[in-house]
Fold:
Amino acid sequence: MTLFFDDPHFWNVMYNTLFYVGLSVPFGVGAAFIIANMLNSRIVARSFFRSVIYVPSIVPAVASAMVWQFLMNVQYGAINGVLRYFGLPIIPFLSNPGWAKPSLILVAIWAQGAAVVIFLAALQDVPRSLYEAATVDGANLWHRFRNVTIPLTSPIILFNLIMGLIVAFQEFTVPWLLTEGGPMNSTEFYLIHLYRNAFEYLRMGKASALAWILFLIIVVFSLIIFKTSARWVYYGGEK
Amino acid sequence: MTTIASETTTRPVPRHYRDAGNRWQTVLLEVIKYAVLVPLTLSFAFPLYWMISSALKVDSQVYTMPPILLPFPIHPENFINGWQILPFTQYAVNSVVFYTVPAVAFTVLSSTIVAYGFSRIRWPGRDTIFWLVVMTMMLPWAVTMVPLFITFKWLGWLDTYRPLVVPALFSHPYIVFLLRQFFMTLPEELSDAARIDGASEFGILFRIILPLTKPALAVVALFRFLWAWNDYLGPLIYLRDENRYPLALGIEQLSRRANDVGNFSNGIPYLMAVSTLVALPIIVTFFFAQRTFIEGISLTGMKG
Structure:
């Protein structure tokens, strides 16, 4: 029996997964939070913007994978078509090992609409009187954002971070359909590796062991976030 | 609370509190806001727009550079021709009849009964068992994927929809948790009054509790529908026979065919057309049940 820890391929999978989680979760949650804040300000057609941003998150992942594969194609993809039109260098989104992970992160962020809706609901619960009070005390926009918005929505930020983490560690469908772990194993994420072991190489024992290691990793990361959250999450107001 | 808030908004801020740059700052901010938000929203919408517009093209319009934003002439026949390349009607029947409908019905029925037992009937050890149920939520599904597969293989259920829908008969922890929260908000006197009138526990659940929690049931049913309709990995693991495929696997199958160059023309338009048709029920449901969706995720944090 061989331990994973001697297996360079396992470490490559770990690196890919941590790269993906480490970028897609903070950027996804951060982008969702900023978009929600923009939507929360006085704005025309708020529910229209909200719907357009939310819908990608409920479209079947298979359907969105198909259109992204087409959009990101080197020869006839629309994105490269536009780049070429403006004389810019084309981007090998899914065929270059360096680009493949960031491309998948981009697709993940595109499907972050649910987090935007959750943030928006939380932002609308922040009492207006607090902003008014802060303005009267001379707080500018940044001060209000930093000292009113962030503390009062911090439990929801924590929630979205943890949920995002759990989902991102188990991401399968979109990378599987877009790159199947390639090119050169650069998008072989944890679940793809696990799926291959279980259902392609039929190593059920190894797959189960991989699953438990993933469980431990998720628990450890969640605990780290929870422990540090005592410093930045504010649970006042309610009691 | 609301009166205080509206009072403060209507009262003008005293002049000396406004610094000179404030009005310019506000205008600038408005400009930046829309300058960011409009392109951003357009780029969120673009992939779906591209899916639909490419579904209306033929090969020569797809491979033209620069890309054609508005196809003309349009080719709506792609929706029919693409659908017929593979037995998509069969896949749609499989998706609806064998997966989505039973999954939603079983989950809602079993989870309401379980949640009722955890919230409106007292029995020894109830709360301990409830927390055990909640703890199973913490387990990532990837961890249970392999042992479940081995169990269902042992039961001889491979290549059927049973592994995907039978577990729904045993409720879903997250949905139980949510429904329990809703059930607990209803006053105990309602049940007591019904009990005095001789109603059974099932009578109380179906005649009194459920009519009062319809919005919560709608949210739960909606999200379960979404999970089943969009599920790819479950059918991928359990189904081998192509005739049993749901739509999600059918699309993947079509994309493999379309990528084999020379198999048939208009591969990409057909793929986009079928993808549009599969995404359509979700998008239509969203527009009709927008409030339920938005309230649902705001309330529960459930993602699609």
